[in-house]
Amino acid sequence: MTEYTPKERLARALKGQPVDRMPAVSFTQTGTVEQMEACGAFWPEANEDARKMAALAEAGHTVVGFEAVRVPFDITAEAEFFGCKIKPGTREQQPSVVGHVVKDAADIEKLSGHDINKGRISVVCDAIKILTDKYGKELPIMGSMIGPFSLAQHMNGDDWFMTIFTDEAFGLALMEFTTEFNIAYAKKMAENGADTMVIIDPTASAQLIGAQFYEKFVVPYHKKIVDAMRELNVATVLHICGDTTQGLALMESSGVDAISVDQNVDVATAVSKVDKAIIVGNLDPVNVLWNQTPEVVKEASQKVLDAGVGLLAPGCGIVSKTPTENLKAMVGMAKSHIY
Amino acid sequence: MSKGEILQAISDAIVSCDVNATEAAVERAKKEGIEAAEIIEKGLASGVNEVGILFERGSLFLSHLILAVDAMERGIMILESDLPATGLGRKPGVIVNGSVEGDAHDIGKIIVSGMLRASGFTVHDLGRNVPLQDFIDKAKETHADLISLSALTTISLNRQYELINMLKEQDLRDKIKVMVGGAPATQEWADRIGADCYAKNAVEAVEKVKELLLLK
After folding, report:
1. Burial A149-165 (b: 16+ CB within 10 A, else e)
2. Which is nearest to B205 in space by CA: B129, B95, B105, B102?
3. pLDDT tens-place string over residues B125-137
4. Theoretical Cys-Cys bridge with B148: which of A143, A196, A219, B97, CB 3.0 to 4.6 Å?
5. Measured distance CA(B96)–CA(B132) in Å, rounded
């Protein structure tokens, strides 16, 4: 059997090509307090400083055993870049978006002509560079960013769900704007060495907005990002929270290589709903990975593997208090799985 | 048009999430001399209720729910001017709702607010990242019956416990009920901190609130 580097193994697995065994990765946030203590890089500084960000990402590999490194750990740098008010994070908690900046087309106009070499998104790109220099030949280098729909929601506030219904032209204009930014940002991450791009678009759920709106407001924009990444030979993974079962075929129509599903989705059903996309998931970050024992994690992992998951992973961002031994149990189960 | 047809037109306007049509239909009902309370109960609220059911079934979505509730509120505004304050035809229940922190996962809270409003309760949604005292101040100001508190992480779970203690300290615990929810919350947790109820999702939240506030 051929021996692959972790980088080759994941690239092949994401294309659905044969590999010697399952890669052990997490496409959602990996930072935990135990890893911070092990490597000396803590939130919130690790969200602000490229070296610390890279160090904590590296701990995902050296401490937990993930066969990849991944940045960043939150999904607010993009909204912050456009001036949304942010509630700062703490050692155990990620920052969150509390203020919004776009009410109408004129506001979009005001925000155009931005320079993406500024702010925390630039820190993320620097961290990717550091990780690539150290691990780029061996390990997958994952960049992640909030998706265009959820970024629009951050910028427009909770009105966004009404906006798409009541003011289609403005809604689509904001989607064009956020997508253009997403593509520029993702390209810069790829230039710095990212070979896998995770699009985290939590509120872009067909369950929330319905298939018709999803098809109009989400698919074309995800497709643009996927196409731009494919040109650079960067694999794409789409994560959307909630019960996305009925939306999976639509999600796949954007051309993403893999779809990450959360604990509300039945994996066997999910696998049956897609054509080529790799289904990733879906251990419950709270009620399994954080609050249970390694034994329970192994049992839950076995169930997901038996259901035919393409890649065993957390169903959503890892909770910062998750014990390393639980994550190691999940990693071990993935590594010992032969397709 | 018969009275039934006029009220049905209001309900239909709500279900199609059409604010203008709702306002026009309410105006017409007013002109016909239909009682405000009846316009609310058999027209506006019944329309929103219908949307709530369709939302639960997955044939209408979050946008519709928010819009329908918005249309109902506009309709009530038209009627409020000529109503005695007590005659609003609303269920006896005022709720203050919010998250003690915010991220993509607090979308559930918006749905909870919408579903509670669809069930005829008055809901003051304070949004996300709400300081604990703000919940209490708003509850005092609006004479709320219940505070609904959503949490996303361990840290914010403890905030739910803190809020209950603050209510005790301020001698309000016997006046204001507390519902807790959010991914890390469980029934055991709710029992441990002495909350009045725990809800797993929006549908359950509505059931629990009805139990607590209407079956007194």
Report:
1. bbbbbbbbbbebbbbbb
2. B95
3. 998 888 899 999 9
4. B97
5. 12
Task: Give A250-262 as a DSSP string.
Answer: HHHTTT-SEEE--
In angstroms, what separates the C-alpha of B124 from chain A's closest C-alpha? 15
CA atoms within 13 A on the CB side of B7: 16
Distances (CA, A) of B91 to A70, B119, B214: 50, 8, 8
Would an 8 Å CB–CB cutoff place B64 in contact with chain A? yes
Q: What is the pLDDT of residues A256-290, one digit of tens each?
A: 999 999 999 999 999 999 999 999 999 999 889 99
Residue A13 in tokens = 């697995």
DSSP string, B133-188: HHHHHHHHHHT-SEEEEE--SHHHHHHHHHHHHHHHHTT-TTT-EEEEESTT--HH
Are the Cβ atoms of B129 and A98 closer than 8 angstroms?
Answer: yes
Q: What angle do CA A160, A174, A200 make, to 5 degrees?
A: 70
- CA torsion angle for B119, B120, B123, B128 (degrees, to 10)? 20
Could you tell me if B53 lies within 8 Å of chain A, comparing CB atoms? Answer: no
Q: For residue B36, which of B89, B86, B74 has the smallest C-alpha distance?
A: B89
Which tokens is A62 given?
A: 């050296």
- Residues paired with residue B125 on neighbouring β-strands, in sequence order: B97
Q: How many CB atoms lie within 10 A of CB A224?
A: 19
A210 touches chain B (CB under 8 A): yes
For an interface test with A, which of B59, B99, B103 has the most A Cβ atoms less than 10 Å from its Cβ?
Answer: B103
- Please give the residue of chain A at the shortest CA–CA distance from B130: A98
A190 φ, ψ (degrees, to nearest 5): -65, -40
- Residue B172 C-beta-side C-alpha neighbours within 13 Å: 22
| Among B63, B103, B104, beta carbon nearest to A165 | B63
What is the pTM (predicted TM-score) of this model?
A: 0.90
- Reading the block at residue B128, the tokens are 């996300």
Give the separation between CA B193 and CA B189, rounded to whole angstroms: 6
**Tens digit of each residue's pLDDT (9 = 90 or more) over B115-171:** 888 787 889 999 888 889 999 999 999 999 999 999 877 778 889 999 999 999 999
Interchain contact B50–A (C-beta under 8 A) = no
Q: Based on C-alpha coordinates, what's the Rg of chain A?
A: 19
Chain A, nearest residue to B65 by Cα: A162
